[in-house]
Amino acid sequence: MENGSFIKINILIPPQKYIANSFVLLSYIIIQNHILEKLIQDLTYQIEDENRVSMAHLSEKDDEIRAVRAQCQAITVELEKLIVEKVNLDAEISKYRQLLEGEENRTHGRIISSASHSFEPTTQTNVHVRSSAMRRVTGTNRSDTQRSAQGNVSILEVASDGSFVTIENTSVSHDEVIGDWKLRSSGSGRDITFTFPKDFRLTPKSKVTVYARGRGIHAPPHSLVFEAEDAFATGGDVRTYLYNEENQV
């Protein structure tokens, strides 16, 4: 270097060598290109395989979803049928319940229950019953008994010695209010009437015994005492009636 100037050195490469180097570089590039193309092809095949597997899985899931939907639809249809059947059944039950309640209410304003008895001195008991709601009359004498009843309240038992009369509510679901109802016992020239206390109620399948004075204890609602009489009617032809609150026969 002289006077602040640089010395420029030119290196010349012979053309033959330059061309040879270019061929080597081109061959390397071609090889690398083939490698990359092969890699791209492999990756493309892998993606296609994964897509096919995914589509197969999706198809299976779609089939499962369709099967579940079909099952749900069948269950829905069956449930709708059951709901319709239940509604119809509830309607039938309601209709029959109304018929039963109407039949029970229809009996108001009439003699609710009656029983007639004839007593003869013997130790046997013979009972003739005209109502499935009636029960056996017990006593120490022979009794021929005929009974009838309408509705749920009936005369269950009449003592042959006139000591008591038992009334029963045969319903299994309804209370019966028998307040102000009258229990009439007639026979052998006697006509006795007992009036139940106001708002007196018989629960389902319950009974109440009305005792003559001195024949039992006063323990409502299970037992009542008729203080006005020491015995109900007795004799050869006794008739016992239960009237509703309107005193209508």
From TrEMBL:
SUPFAM superfamilies: Intermediate filament protein, coiled coil region, Lamin A/C globular tail domain
GO cellular component: nuclear lamina
Domain of life: Eukaryota
InterPro entries: Lamin_tail_dom (IPR001322), Lamin_tail_dom_sf (IPR036415)
Pfam families attached to this UniProt entry: LTD
Example GO molecular function: structural constituent of cytoskeleton
Keyword Coiled coil annotated: yes
The entry's keywords: Coiled coil
Ranges annotated as spanning the membrane: none
Domain LTD: 141-249
Keyword match NADP: no
Biological process, per Gene Ontology: heterochromatin formation; nuclear envelope organization; nuclear migration; nuclear pore localization; protein localization to nuclear envelope
Coiled-coil stretches: 79-106
Matching PROSITE patterns: LTD
PANTHER family: INTERMEDIATE FILAMENT PROTEIN IFA-1, LAMIN DM0-RELATED
Protein name: LTD domain-containing protein
Species the sequence originates in: Haemonchus placei
